[in-house]
Amino acid sequence: MTFQTESRLSRTASSTGTRTRAGTVTRLSSTRTSVVADSVFIGRRTVRSVSSAIVAAVGWLRETVSAAGWLLLATLIGGVVLGLTLGLVEAWAIAAIAAALLLMSVPFLLGSHDYRINLVLERDRVVAGSEVNGHLDIGNRSKRVSLPGLVDIPVGDGLVEAHVPLLLAGAEHREQLTIAAKRRGVIDVGPMTIGRGDPVGILRRELTWPGTQRIYVHPVTVRIPSTSAGLVRDLEGMPTRDIVDADLSFHAIREYVAGDSPRHIHWRSTAKTGKLMVRQYEESRRSRIALLLGLNDDDEYASEDEFEMAVSAAASLGAQGIRDGRDVLVTASAEIPEFSRTEVKAIQTIPTLTAKGMLDSISAIESSERAMRIEDVSKLTVSTFPELSVAFIVTGSVLPLDRLRAAAIAFSAQVKTVAVRCEPGAEPSFRTTRELSVMTIGALHDLQHMMARGAIQ
Asked: Is 392 within 8 Å of 420 (Cβ atoms)?
């Protein structure tokens, strides 16, 4: 049966020589369906509701019941089955004990936490081998007593547990924390999770507080004297062998040719020779230091300690260059995709605007067996940043000398190229070949001493 209603919503008239009537009609139809269709609709809605309830219940059980709880539940069901089928009194006793433990665990889940949590870390940047102290403040904001709980704080790959005692309304508790930063890297602290459950660990409820704090663990560095290793150049730049008509470093006087600027005429020489003479200059370039760090642990480094020494050496050189106000460029090998069909060559550039930013980025550097070879890093560095004054190639003891020479050939003859080979325990040495100078250090302080003596000036 169909019901129809008709309503005239508006009626307007306009006069433009003729009279026109316009109206809008809205019709509403309602249809009564059969009993079978209504039953199907109600059945589908009921099935969806039951399915949603089952999914929610399963999710709650998976989050709340621990492995010990599932074991007790299986014991309870098994004891009841054995008691009914075999009539064993022992099975009924075991089932009763399991049921009692499950029921006694339920009250520990009642209620809810209303905590105010604040995690304070003393520092967010430390040097490898040190510790970070902090504290966790927990306050009960509710008007009732809060049962004891446990706060889980993820710290990198580990987990720190802070026990929260029973807190009265408005009470607060402070838990002291110590985070060990033994190795260089980036440590994420959080997000925190507070859990509450029975002492046995049968049932447990958790609440997560979003938010993560980050700790940068910088590599160990040494302070290099600013008067060594070509790190100090005149603020105006470093003179080169290229002769130009205008610069700051005077070279010689030559005869005037058409097109020379009158400003560069040397009048005293002109008066002596009777011919116009002009000054010539050596082109000065802004001192730019390039640091190339190899990351291929398969064919460059003998151990993890050797790689960490190389990272510390590169960080020491870069930090000193930034403190001296030089243009510092730090590049490293990029990881080649494992299933790449074509040859991929790429480098990663470390920000060097500030020493702190550079050390933050270096903290996250990791070695890889798929990292690009140091020879390719040199070629890409030169093609991307051609104007360089000094280049340091920092690598391990496994890399042979011929590959170091191949990496140094990519730089022009005007670039001072130095290879820093890190070999823990080795005798420090320095030698010069036709293409580059090779500095071998057995400890990080060897770099400081050799640079202080001006070994590569």
From this structure: yes
